[in-house]
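pasting for the record
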Amino acid sequence: MKNTRWWLIRHAPVPNPGNMIYGRSDPAADTGDSDALAALAARLPPQAVWVTSHLRRTRQTAAALRLPGSDMALVERALAEQDFGRWEGLSHDAVAELHPEETRRFWSDPAAEAPPEGESFAAVMERVAGAVGRLTDLYAGRDIVAVIHGGSIRAALALALDLTPQAALRLAVAPLSLSRIDHYANEGDGFWSVAAMNALGTFPGSGR
């Protein structure tokens, strides 16, 4: 039986004093918390396959961890954050004021509804599941360190837990947190288990 281990890391915090929506936008991350990065790096396996999305904040975080392989990470666009379309770069308050009807429609079912010219969280789950499945087959039996996003980690956890998109949105993923899902395969059959969620990460307002 082959055990493929996914080490899911949410990128370092993004300074965002205006509370802007930046899903597919490309702001920089703050990688100045050396203690948090060192604690996270100490938990990660050697000789892993490293993966990031194409967005700068994930590549910056992988580089800041400074582990062998992190500077040669695979870039997987399908593991990027949710695309919020025309809402990108706007604050939540501005979206509600400028697009009231679209906002009401979106919040009536935020898992299935998509922002204008964006994608729904259900669509995020579908593309992330495809990428996770493909890379699990390609690197069966290996450790895969994926430095990605809150939304894509939520989608990967949903795959392992067999959650609906609506249920998956209840999962919170902290910056610089570590979650792990394991895939066990034996002669074509396979199943997932969740080994950790939000290890080491700190939520805003926690006092740490």
